[in-house]
Amino acid sequence: MPDHDVIVIGAGFTGLTAAVALMEAGCDVVLVEARQRVGGRAEAEYLPDGTRIDTGGQFFCRDMTHLVDLAKQHGAEEVWTYVSGRPSYRPPLAEQRGESIWQEVDRLRDRMIALDLSDPALAGLTVAQWIERQQDEDPAVLDSFRRLVMGLWCRAPEEISLAYLASNDRRITNVYPELEMFLAGTMQGLAEKLAARLGDRLRLSSPATCVTLMDDEVEVDVNGRAITARQVIFAVPPVMARQIEISPALPARLTKALDAWSPGCVIKLMIGYETPFWRDRGLSGSVRWSTPQGMYACDISHGNYYGLVVFIGGPLASDWHKRLQSELVAFVTDELASALGEEARTPRSTCVRDWVNDAWSDGAYSDVITDLHSPDAEDVLLEGLPRLRFACSELSPSFPGYIEGAIVAGNEAAQTVLWKLGK
Question: Would you identify the CATH topology of the domain 96-170?
Answer without folding.
Answer: Guanine Nucleotide Dissociation Inhibitor; domain 1 (1.10.405)
